Amino acid sequence: MCDSWHNLLDPLRVRSCGDKDAPAPTIRSEGVLYAPMRDGRVSMTDVRDIAAVAVTALTHDGHEGKTYEITGPEAISFGQAAERLSNAVHREVRYVDVALGTAREVLIARGTPDWYADAMVKLFEMLSAGAGAGVSNTVQEVTGKAPRAFDDFARDYADAFKGEFAGAGVSI
């Protein structure tokens, strides 16, 4: 067992359905994934892979003082994510690129503090320019298992994205 709590897990872009900021509501209501990402690619990380690395790092020797950059197995665009979600929910999901200023306005309208909205816009700006496209083999090296692909995530959580497309609006 690890005698030190000095480990740093550094996940890139986390895929999760339980987050209030997740795009599931507009995918369910409109069939649209809104984001200010242009054609930027991101190696999205499944929360289950982050948890697996954390459990291993905290319960096995040899991980003391190490920093783990955790990514998914490939960098994909939000357009590709929409295509893969379409396959999982068996209906069209489109990606709509949103201007950074619009993204900030939507965040503020939802009650996000200005400082956090500004930080999110800066993050989207960096990610859309390629800052999140790197892929590591950390999940495989630490856990002995391959990281989950976005297709796995989309299939496993398809029910969170299913619904009638009836509303309108932008959700970032």
Describe this structure in words.
The protein has 172 residues and is α/β, with parallel strands linked by helices. The protein has a domain at 8-99 and 132-152: Rossmann fold (3-Layer(aba) Sandwich). Helix content is 45%, strand content 15%. The chain is built from eight helices and eight strands, in the order ββαβββαββαβααααα. It has a two-stranded parallel sheet with strand order 1-6. The chain has a two-stranded parallel ribbon with strand order 2-5. Strands 3-8 form a two-stranded parallel sheet. The longest helix has 18 residues, at 114-131. The radius of gyration is 17 Å and the shape is globular. Residues 1-6, 17-21 and 165-172 have low confidence and may be disordered.
Helix tally? 8
Query: What is the fourth-level CATH superfamily of the domain at 8-99 and 132-152?
Result: NAD(P)-binding Rossmann-like Domain
Gap between N and C termini = 41 Å
Overall spatial form: globular
Which spans of ≥5 residues are poorly predicted at pLDDT below 50? 1-6, 17-21, 165-172
Question: What share of residues are in beta strands?
Answer: 15-25%
Mean pLDDT: 85
Descriptive key words:
172 residues; alpha/beta; Rossmann fold; two-stranded parallel sheet; two-stranded parallel ribbon; 8 helices; 8 strands; disordered N terminus; disordered C terminus
